[in-house]
Amino acid sequence: MSTVYENPWFKVVREEGFHWVEENGASNGAAILAVLDGHSALLVRVQRPAQGKRIMLEIPRGYGEPGESSLQCACRELQEETGYRAQPDQLTLLGHYRPNSAILASSVDLYLAQLGSTDLVSAPDDEAIAIEAVPLQALPALLQDGTLDDGFTLAALAHFYARAQG
């Protein structure tokens, strides 16, 4: 196995003719489906250069810091991206997500955060263009019309809806 390219965020590895990407911080990264007051999902509008600078509506997510658990990462990323502070007992592990098992070595934990309006403690960072509280009953239509098409968001919603069925 050899590294054929590396930067601060990821490296490309080659072994026996196969190539894949290993992302720094992905093993303890997190994506968070945050439900506000039991009736709205907190989503962020972000511009994604890799998608032609498209503005996308997604759940908050991010890489883990060295020594940080995915739960700690989820709490930190949620506050950074939305301004809402969650305590660890407000989060439930929904499952895990492998964004592209053919070329990415990543596996990211997916969390459900149950928040109240009093959990808003700061302004969000400048990564998001906007924070939107979308009614839970509006999410299926946003899935159907393709508004929600980010893999992390889709995976978290799949786990969320599967729990509701079970």
Distance between the termini: 43 Å
Uncertain regions spanning at least 5 consecutive residues: none
Largest sheet: 7 strands, mixed
How many strand units?
10
The portion of residues assigned to helices is 10-25%
By helix and strand content, what is the structural category? Answer: alpha+beta
- Nearest-integer average pLDDT: 94
Task: Give a short overview.
The chain is an alpha+beta fold and 166 residues long. The protein is 20% helix and 37% strand. The longest helix has 15 residues, at 151-165.
Describe the structure.
With 166 residues, this protein is α+β, with helices and mostly antiparallel strands. 20% of the residues lie in helices and 37% in strands. It contains three helices and ten strands. The chain has helices at residues 70-82, 139-144, 151-165; strands at 2-6, 10-15, 18-23, 30-36, 40-48, 54-58, 61-62, 91-97, 108-115, 130-135. The strands form two sheets. Strands 4, 5, 6, 7, 8, 9 and 10 form a seven-stranded mixed beta sheet that branches. Strands 1-2-3 form a three-stranded antiparallel beta sheet, with no helix packed on it. The longest helix is centred in the last third of the chain and has 15 residues, at 151-165. The chain is globular. The mean pLDDT is 94.
